[in-house]
Specification:
With 310 residues, this protein is an alpha/beta fold. The chain has nine helices and nine strands. Bound molecules: N-carbamoyl-L-aspartate.
């Protein structure tokens, strides 16, 4: 039982077999949801959702997952709503939610917050994103979505375009991909947005076959998947630095004239203006389906983490 009562902090804490168990459980949940079966496995359970940074998908899909499983959720979305605003420290806040709930899902702009919470809490803690560091459950969804569209992850050519420097979803996805055998990973970025050294080091140690290129048109014809992110505006210490990078890439229908038949664009969302909305209704847009798969995957994860399904 690789998930039961364990904290979900980094995707690197899991093996390929562990993820396969999660994905099979997600398949099963999707089947049950389609059949409208009763899924009240979280009856009597409470999840605490502490989201100290804005969130649409992560927070509401976790909340939806809890409700769909018949559980209840304590949700707070700003420090102002808790005694953190009075100066209470994180440790005491976590202690309280640990005593009120069965699982804590936390997002914060600070790297290491989820790990810190996990050290204090006895209940399992799930990292909903900690600064620029990691977003493990998003990477689980991303990998599951690739498997959903292609039936496999091994052998695929995946391009990653966006804010490689600050997007935590990219770091976690790259770590997750080290558990598989993709044919090639293209890191596509103008120099200023390149991957941070600490992330590059970790994926190279794990032999991920990365090639860094600066332009999408150099590689687009080879790609099975293109993973895009927005520029992570809030992580730029200096607004001038953000201004310099904000319009560096945009995918338009013209960009996609030579792509492979089954080519898919994934994006953790929110997208701002890096993908032309005319792409949304094409067969290449995989991102809305990806967001939708977040609910069954998070349901599966909650069941496994709470030891309710094996
Ligand atoms: C991402 C995040 O919060 O890191 N959003 C998400 O959880 N789907 C991506 C982003 O904010 O750009």
């Amino acid at each position: 039982m690789p998930f039961a009562f364990r904290d979900v902090i980094s995707i690197l804490d899991y093996s390929r077999e562990d993820l396969e168990l999660l994905f099979k459980t997600t398949d099963k949940i999707r089947e049950l949801l389609e059949k409208k079966s009763s899924l009240n496995y979280l009856d009597g359970k409470i999840a605490a959702l502490l989201f100290l940074e804005p969130s649409t998908r992560t927070m509401y899909s976790f909340q939806t997952a809890v409700y769909r499983l018949g559980g209840k959720a304590l949700v707070f979305t700003s420090e102002q709503a808790t005694s953190l605003a009075k100066g209470e420290n994180y440790a005491d806040t976590i202690r309280m939610f640990d005593s009120y709930s069965d699982v804590i899902i936390i997002r914060s702009k600070y790297e290491g917050t989820a790990r810190f919470a996990a050290e204090i809490a006895e209940k399992p803690v799930i990292n909903g994103g900690d600064g620029r560091h990691e977003h493990p459950t998003q990477a689980m969804i991303d990998l599951y979505t690739i498997r959903y569209f292609f039936g496999r992850i091994d052998g695929l050519t995946i391009g990653i375009l966006g804010d490689l420097k600050y997007a935590r979803t990219i770091a976690s996805l790259l770590y997750g991909l080290t558990l598989y055998n993709p044919r090639k990973i293209y890191l596509i970025s103008p120099g200023v947005l390149r991957l941070r050294e600490e992330v590059r080091k970790k994926i190279l140690e794990r032999n991920l076959p990365i090639t860094e290129v600066s332009r999408l048109d150099e590689v687009i014809e080879e790609l099975d998947v293109l993973y895009v992110t927005r520029i992570q505006k809030e992580r730029y210490p200096d607004p001038i630095e953000y201004e310099k990078v904000k319009n560096l890439y945009k995918i338009t229908p013209e960009t996609l004239t030579k792509v492979k038949e089954n080519f898919k664009i994934l994006h953790p969302l929110p997208k701002i203006d890096e993908i032309d909305p005319r792409i949304d209704n094409t067969k290449y847009a995989g991102y809305f389906q990806q967001a939708k798969l977040g609910v069954p995957l998070r349901m599966a994860l909650l069941l496994l983490v709470l030891g309710l399904w094996r």
